[in-house]
Amino acid sequence: MINIRKLEAELWESADLLRAGSKLTSNQYCMPVLGLIFLRYAYSRFKMVEAEILKDRPKRGGRVMPVEASDFAAKSALFLPEDAQYKYLVNLPENIAAAELKNRSGHTMNSLGEVVNNAMQLVEEQSEQLTGVLPKDYTIFSDELLSELLRIFNNSALDDIDGDIVGRIYEYFLNKFAKNIAQDDGVFFTPKSLVKMIVNIIEPKSGVLLDPACGSGGMFIQSGDFVNAAGMHANSAMTFYGQEKVEYNAQLCLMNMAVHGLTGVIKSGDEANTFYHDAHNLNGKCDYVMANPPFNVDKVKAESCENAGRLPFGMPGINKSKEVGNGNYLWISYFYSYLNDKGRAGFVMASSATDSQGKDKDIREQLVRTGDVDVMISVGNNFFYTKSLPCSLWFFDKNKPEAIRDKVLFIDARNYYTVVDRTLNEWSEWQLKNLNAIVWLHRGEIDKYQNLLAEYKQILGKSITFEDSLNLLKDELKDLQKRLKLELENAKRGDQKRIQALFHEEITAKNAEITIAKEALWLYEKFGEGEYKDIEGLCKAATISDIKEKGWSLTPGAYVGVAPVEDDGVDFAERMAEIHKELLALQAESNSLMETISKNMEELGI
Tens of pLDDT along 367-386? Predict the structure, then answer.
């Protein structure tokens, strides 16, 4: 799996050197650089789809028929004319003027900036929603600087990443380029695993999908992937609508959707301020609402909100300045109000909103009494890319099965995650499936759960239990590590790196299998062949009466309790011996360093 943080750091380090060496401000530099990343990522997806098209391409006169824009439209992908392909741009001659290249209007181009501007215009012509969106001010760069930027972003790692990668790198760069912009406008990238969880539980199939705080469009991208994976055509099955107050973000959303072959109607600016405007006139008309709105927004004009409607449970608390002091329950009310009578909503919200008091509590009580609150999930710290705060995922379903109409499924997933690095956590693909499986069982969708078990068995082997499979894989890993140690001890000095590289791949693959086995066992130990039950510290299907008794709190931890402490499988005596050995080695190293320092000081006459 590609290390996205390493990629970002590499791109930034190189680009920052160039930025420091130019006279451009961050605001001048930011969008053109992001435009180049967009173009490079678009080229990656173009090549991937082109390979799919060429697999079954008919021949004429013994030659494979060339691909056309219509072939890409059929695959929900963005077509790139040759002069807009990244490969073409990075291989241009050094002297552009001497090459006598013509732009789309037939005029000779005299600089690399003009060539890149022309490429952006050619891309815009392939997608109506991109008209006027892409940056076209590349003549602000010298040819040498722009050539170096094109080289930097020609990174093959971008070929291996899916999802809202443009949005993720965008937020990273925006925070680096212009932190004041990022903070003032609440730029807030939604992590892929949270988006996938929302989409997986909402299960979009067909109809109208609204994201009224759409940012860089991650909800649309993941929904499109979900629909396409189900064998449907996302652009035919779904209609995507977005509102985004920050125009920078709206531009990025349109770029992002275009790369993934999706079309949508995105409105931005003041008319797209969801607190005051239903920009697409969708109140009560949406099949799906998904969002990650800005949390805890204050100074929202109360009168403007009331006039705008979409408040089926009334206004949240208003202060002396006739303002809403915290906009969380405005968002929650809007999301509910946008749904039609069978609609589903899923959104990210500040953890504090699950049991806030005052008018918030009154709204929450009315909301729970509708029976439309479906699932509540607590998420731990460090899931967000630039924030460390915890959050909750809320889900509404106006078409819940009658059997669970008076129940809400609470999942406390604060201690269930994969550590990416010191400041970032996520749910792995298998953890996403496991959490999703709890929802399936709660809904009575046993077949989906059993299909997941079958998937685990297919990977791990059908003939043994998950526990036996895990133990076997652990033994195999120990054998690999012993073999590596022996070979390194017997190897010549020049061969050690080669041997480590050979074993590294095998050990990595074995660890991946162990992870899958652990997740399979985690799920099976709790729910067996497929029967929902409340699990202490993890999940609880609470009735509306239970929620009333808890003061209308929607905090999962208030219902699921605390999980029993599990044996972590570590042999205490063995681990203490390892630690003791490590300490002795460190002490010996320290003594050696002190001796060296003393000798050096003696030589200096100190």
Answer: 999 999 999 999 999 988 76
pLDDT interval class at 37 (50, 70, 90): confident
% of the chain residues with pLDDT over 70: 84
Asked, for residue 556, whether it belongs to a domain, the answer is no
Per-residue pLDDT at 44 = 86
Q: Supply the pTM of this predicted model.
A: 0.84
- CB of 75 closer than 8 Å to CB of 82: no
Q: Quote the CA–CA distance of 64 and 54 in Å, as a whole number.
A: 8
Q: How far apart are the first and last CA of the chain?
A: 52
CA distance 200 to 309: 30
Residue type, 582: E
Instruction: Enter the DSSP assignment of 528.
Output: T
Of 444, 461, 476, the domain-final residue: 444
Strands 300-301 and 207-211: unpaired
Cα radius of gyration (the chain)? 28
265 and 375 both lie in a single domain: yes
Condensed to tens digits (0 to 9), the pLDDT of residues 313-345 reads 999 999 999 999 999 999 999 999 999 999 999
Burial grade of 126 (CB within 10 A; 0-12, 13-18, 19 or more): middle
SS3 438: helix
pLDDT at 183 over 50: no
Distance CA 383, CA 418 (A): 10
Alpha helices by DSSP H, 463-571: 466-490, 496-527, 544-549, 557-560
State which residues form the domain around 579.
570-606
Asked if residue 59 belongs to a domain, the reply is yes
* Backbone φ/ψ region at 552: left (φ over 0), alpha (ψ -120 to 50), beta: left
pLDDT in tens, 529-581: 999 999 999 999 999 999 999 999 999 999 999 876 555 555 566 667 667 66
Cβ atoms of 558 and 408 closer than 8 Å: no
Distance of alpha carbon 113 from alpha carbon 139, whole angstroms: 4
Last residue of a domain, one of 505, 531, 557: 531
Handedness of CA 150, 155, 159, 160 (dihedral sign): negative
Q: At what angle do helices 359-369 and 328-338 cross, to 10 degrees?
A: 20
Pairwise CA distance, residues 75 & 55, whole Å: 13
Give me the residues paired with residue 497 across strands: none
Segments of 292-429 assigned E as strands? 300-301, 323-324, 339-350, 373-379, 391-397, 407-412, 418-421, 424-426
Which residues, at least 6 apart from 185, have a Cβ–Cβ distance to it below 8 Å? 245, 246, 248, 249
Who's near 148: CB < 8 A, 6+ residues apart?
A: 18
Tokens of 565: 């402490």
